[in-house]
Design a protein that fits this description.
homodimer; nine-stranded mixed sheet; five-stranded mixed sheet; globular
Chain lengths: ~425, ~425
């Protein structure tokens, strides 16, 4: 599309109320707009980024036999009374009454809805295991929304629920999902995400892991060992003993005084839930011996907006985000510098059409503005490859191709530019 | 995917509480599950249908220069106080307070959010016109939800908002959007949808149209003339005079006593809003003469779930939906009849893989159940083409290909079946 028509302001000044770079850059680049505390609208660039993240997640969830479904945002309180969470969850859950006086809630997670959807229709052991997932809006009335998309009240989440006839089968699937999560982060440009134990691993209880992007702006503390592969979040580590939860503390796994503490953003989590929900909500199946059993559940979440912000935290400079190709709002940012030069304009117009006809996603800037304005806008949109058509380049019969991270630049002859750009994209695609 | 693993019950009995066929068939076929009055979860077959409808809508909205954005589900009351609708809308709007006592509402439409998103960033006439749209969950506390997905409380909607510097420009875009809607319905399998005037056309006021699928089970009345192209909904017609709103009444356009009254389901609507929202919410731009002006708005809605139900109403028989190829949950329903025959099973397994490698979406039934159970399940899933592998067919070295509507059947030699099926699909794709 043409940049001239792209709705959303871009500007240079860092907003004073932004405590993390991703928030500041997303405000400066016209990605999001605050509607209320912790509630945002997305402009097109962000919607395109989250759409690509969602596509990656769908592919990986389908690859581990997930079935996409959809649960409601608004649910009857009665469903949450069944599980006991209507009482046990506090003010984070939004509650209201409908016109007939029925108590309703806004979904902040969907274990109850998942059990309600399947409990009447999966009654034989032969139909297990299975996994259902959705990508849907959730609302959690956080006391302290902060850091743009990192901690919000309304958010879009992929949440998945698996059902099994044994703990062993759950553990097998849990491991499969763990690997799918690794593929998701790698494809989205965050291969450095690590998983950390979110349970003590010693105290019994259910197994769970958090996936963490290590970054100083993260709000979670992660306890790691320099000598072995021990990794846990602060809460799980504290259950193992106070001494370890400091720099140089004793690792509970290898016993060496090698504990380090880092900051991280939680970009996903996976839980072994056991039979908590199936028991309380009376979901059963008949096993091979004809006996009634409760299925064992796992659940698996990824917040889409927080992941987008985390990618921006990991990939940006002072001028804007540097989106990895797989999640970039567009693949190519085409700049017609001095578009009042008719030959520049005519050639750039043609290149725009040629690139699109090859399936390339192009944002095209043919505004009559200075190269400085053009390039600072391009920096804020963070598109991986910038293609520059200008009077000088035209005289040399070439276009410039520059990567957003400045690591790559090349010239291509004008008549072969579309082909050259397409090749560069193909080589850079995962 | 394999039918054996598909979550959702299928059964023959028509549920007693279903007043329309689409609701009954979607319950019988494992498409949806009631969660509360007018609130449903979707199983995978419905999610796949609505996903395909959403893709068609996105393509057509992008083709008329729409920019996809996302507004929140939860909005502050203050936004609706600006437009005056916090007071003017009644109990259909869900309201609650957050933990800090701030009044919030659930979006039932997003004019306020659209104006809030763009009013600070589109200030020059040169940036007009533009259109933004989203596909998002909405909640409307209907007094009487009914007919499955036809009238619900929670629904997914495509809502679009265009902004213009003149009424003439709005009218031009309105016409363009009208044509895009016709393409959407045609591509989704409902070329018979008609647009009707939803305003009097005589009483002044704003122009709007509703898109109607004519069907006896519709809850709207449509007044049409047998002699000319007059078409209006009942409310608009009544504003033109009582006499016309009966069979044989006088047409207000051609004057002949040729009025007929039909029933229809509203599957979309488009409105010329004027400056109602831009004035009340103080959105302005600077025109060519440097003067401050209010932009003129249009808005354009399509309910996704209701459209899916309407397609089912228009395309079904007593055994199940007959999904048009473009919106079908899968393209091919592969039945391995007598899958205990190892040769049948081995061949069907291979055909399943071959079809998928050609990009065909296949639901594969290799359960050891009778052909009767297999075919009645296939009828309920309504996949356009059924491919039958059986011992008898195998002895004749062929597979049977039958369309769900029984209008087409063919045999293909086993070794060339994947290719033959792929060709049939290509020829039937729009």
């Amino acid at each position: 599309m043409k940049l001239e028509k792209l709705v959303g302001d871009r500007f240079r000044e860092r907003p004073s109320d932004c405590v993390v770079d991703s928030h500041a850059l997303m405000v400066r680049g016209g990605y999001l707009k605050n509607v209320a505390s912790g509630i945002f609208s997305s402009y097109t660039p962000l919607k395109r980024v989250t759409g690509k993240i969602e596509r990656i997640i769908r592919e990986e969830m389908d690859a581990i036999d997930g079935q996409e479904v959809q649960f409601p945002v608004v649910m009857p309180a009665s469903l949450w009374q069944e599980s006991g969470r209507y009482e046990s969850i506090g003010r984070e859950m939004a509650r209201f009454h409908d016109r007939s006086g029925n108590a309703l809630v806004l979904g902040m997670t969907h274990e109850e809805a998942a059990v309600q959807l399947v409990r009447d229709c999966v009654r034989s052991y032969s139909e297990y295991p299975f996994m259902i997932y959705q990508i849907q809006t959730k609302f959690r009335d956080e006391a302290r929304p902060r850091a743009g998309l990192i901690r919000v009240r309304e958010f879009t989440m992929k949440d998945a629920y698996s059902f099994h006839t044994s703990q062993a089968d759950l553990e097998k699937y849990y491991e499969r999902c763990h690997k799918a999560y690794e593929r998701i982060y790698a494809r989205a440009g965050l291969p450095e995400v690590v998983s950390v134990a979110a349970d003590s691993g010693m105290m019994g209880g259910n197994v769970s892991h958090e996936f963490m992007l290590l970054t100083p702006v993260g709000e979670d503390s992660i306890v790691m060992c320099r000598e072995c592969d021990y990794r846990a979040n602060r809460e799980a580590a504290e259950q193992c003993g106070f001494d370890m939860v400091r720099e140089g503390g004793i690792c509970p796994r290898c016993g060496k005084p090698a504990i380090t503490i880092s900051r991280g953003i939680e970009v996903g989590n996976i839980f072994q839930l056991g039979t908590k929900y199936t028991r309380s909500m009376n979901m059963t199946y008949i096993d091979q011996n004809g006996e009634v059993q409760y299925p064992v559940m796992g659940c698996y979440g990824i917040g889409i907006g927080r992941l987008a912000a985390s990618i921006c935290e990991a990939h940006h400079d002072e001028y804007g985000p540097i989106w990895p190709l797989a999640v970039a709002p567009w693949q190519v940012h085409l700049c017609a510098v001095r578009s009042d030069d008719m030959q520049v304009k005519a050639y750039a117009d043609k290149l725009y059409v040629d690139l699109q006809s090859r399936g390339v996603e192009v944002i095209y800037d043919d505004r009559q503005v200075s190269a400085g304005v053009m390039f600072s806008d391009a920096d804020l949109l963070g598109v991986p490859f910038r293609v520059i058509v200008s009077p000088r380049n035209r005289r040399q019969n070439m276009v410039e191709i520059v990567s957003r991270d400045r690591c790559f630049s090349a010239n291509a002859p004008m008549e072969a530019a579309a082909e050259a750009i397409w090749k560069i994209l193909s080589e850079n695609a995962l």
